[in-house]
Amino acid sequence: MRTVLQVIVITALSACSATPTPSSIHHVVFLKLKDPGEIAALERSCNELLVPIPGVIEYASGRPVDTGRAAVERDYDIAILVVFPTAAEYQAYLVHPNHDALVKEWKPRFASMRIYDFSP
Questions:
Q1: What pTM, to 2 d.p., does this model score?
Q2: Which one of 1, 9, 31, 49 has the minimum C-beta count within 10 Å?
Q3: Pick the CATH number of 2-118 from 3.40.50.300, 1.10.10.10, 3.20.10.10, 3.30.70.100
């Protein structure tokens, strides 16, 4: 849990340089697949379906990096960061057909999913 909080804090600090609005929402998702062979396909699906959703002002996805630090968690296959200017855009994103399609297709294939939302 401490490491996850460190990731969130680092993400928040890096976002500070972009001068986010006080009402912005940062949505961070850590996904572990039942079949690691599907990581590239999941990453493609996320990139294709989530980026075009209206209200997404920042998006990033990636895989764990071995930095040689024992304190850094790497117990996930892909991490996703989506930033919204306000809670209204975030709520619209959650019910958008692209988000629904992604969740419907991939959720049964997840071994675990952790979601963290914060506002800087």
A1: 0.79
A2: 1
A3: 3.30.70.100
